[in-house]
């Protein structure tokens, strides 16, 4: 058993999200209670070609453990070689706690390369990818997988796929309760997730529509999953992990995080991003972060106007000015 599931633990995973769950955002979510981290997905071919841009996606800090590096691709041998390179060469400067394989990404450019959720339509290739990685590095670190419940509503094959993945050496399986055709629309089907969890012996992590502690508790109580994975809810509310643990421990809802504390975290995120130089200078970094900043301010008073202004920020000082204005507006309203 993976150690983070031992002693009846019910870990909260931060879902891997391209362009979102970089090393800095993972650090923030870890501090706020996330238990297990997974990197943004990384191209196996990019790893093999020693692409520096690809390599940065494998970075993590010791404080983020347990953390896995997620790979995507469709060639089992090459995937295995890439996984071995990550483990043996220590591309992140350290060895991850596990390797995760992406069988769930619905994005066209990934699917077009026969990666991500496209393999749900080709179980023999899916099996070869999973077994290829497990044979390459499975004796050194655990190998896990993330999948969707099927390609579309007419081909929901999650139980079949999960059994194949288990037989191929996967030691845990995360299941997003939507089909590839759904994208991120509609509702996640937790009945299918539950069926998968009851069909295999390895831990199953449920993913989809988890937004608060009550959602976590409901899925823990009503399904056979061993943990849950939180994605889009964490983008605007990384406190969701702390709130979920508080609810599970006490049965009560934590007081809502106030606007001032939210802005403090937003500005800290900006500063950490600029200091990392991952996206270039301050202007380049803030430009790259605009969509992230807009996600953070969802639900803020005057959020519509804030989003319009955040579309144009190019410095930390501009974000600080917007924060001061936003907090001031809230204080005036309270008076």
Report on this model:
With 335 residues, this protein is of the alpha/beta class. Helix content is 47%, strand content 11%. The protein folds into two domains: 3-250, TIM Barrel, CATH 3.20.20.70; 259-334. The protein is built from 15 helices and nine strands. Strands 1-2-4-5-6-7-8-9 form an eight-stranded parallel barrel, surrounded by six helices. α4 packs parallel to α6. It is globular, with a radius of gyration of 20 Å.
What is the topology?
Elements: E1 12-14, H1 23-31, E2 36-38, E3 42-43, H2 44-48, H3 52-55, E4 67-72, H4 76-89, E5 98-103, H5 108-111, H6 123-137, E6 143-148, H7 158-167, E7 173-176, H8 190-199, E8 204-207, H9 213-222, E9 227-230, H10 232-236, H11 240-250, H12 259-276, H13 282-296, H14 303-310, H15 316-334
Parallel strand pairs: 1-2, 1-9, 2-4, 3-4, 4-5, 5-6, 6-7, 7-8, 8-9
